[in-house]
Amino acid sequence: xxxxxxxxxxxxxxxxxxxxxxxxxxxxxxxxxxxxxxxxxxxxxxxxxxxxxxxxxxxxxxxxxxxxxxxxxxxxxxxxxxxxxxxxxxxxxxxxxxxxxxxxxxxxxxxxxxxxxxxxxxxxxxxxxxxxxxxxxxxxxxxxxxxxxxxxxxxxxxxxxxxxxxxxxxxxxxxxxxxxxxxxxxxxxxxxxxxxxxxxxxxxxxxxxxxxxxxxxxxxxxxxxxxxxxxxxxxxxxxxxxxxxxxxxxxxxxxxxxxxxxxxxxxxxxxxxxxxxxxx
Length: 280
Known about the structure:
This protein is α+β, with helices and mostly antiparallel strands and 280 residues long. It folds into two domains: 2-190, no CATH class; 227-279. The chain has twelve helices and seven strands. The chain is elongated.
């Protein structure tokens, strides 16, 4: 219950406060899947990433000059990608824990969006302007300084990407007919990043037929995005698959209260009827 209360408090802050601590909230979310594991070592590791990035910059500039954008990118790459060997892994796309920041820190590997949290955290520790970018192929990080911008790929150890690189990535994934446009570079704020982490975890939990865990992840999504009725629908169907009839029915009641499009609600209404007959 203490873990649940901590998660709910963190998510409520994230849903209303644009300035919340992204990495700390991601850690608290991760703890829901790993109750009893202390967060202290992970918090200290995050602090080291920021401290060592700052030390790298001081060594390069003598602590007196402004930090050019290319040096900022190189500092993040050297500390996170090379010193601590954070890299993407294709295996992470098959595992629900690839989105769990605690697991990512343990194994130095994970999904692109989870790795991006580390880069964003270290950059913000130095008050650098940094933005998460939800590119169709892979989640990226953009550093900004004045009118200058640099795109980094956390999945490939913080490699700097040019528009040509991103075009090649898009064509490799979507086919030679795909065309790159700057409109594809969708900025993601902290809440959007957390939602993406949880959506990706939920999808993999469903694939693994871990319906109870997937339903609890949908509950997390609902806390992060209270205006969206869809997570309540997901909760209802997932709890039903898990055999949690009462919780499934309660979630579907909430969904139907929130869903204004009745054409979307028909399947949920039918399932709710079935669940109520089972409960009676």
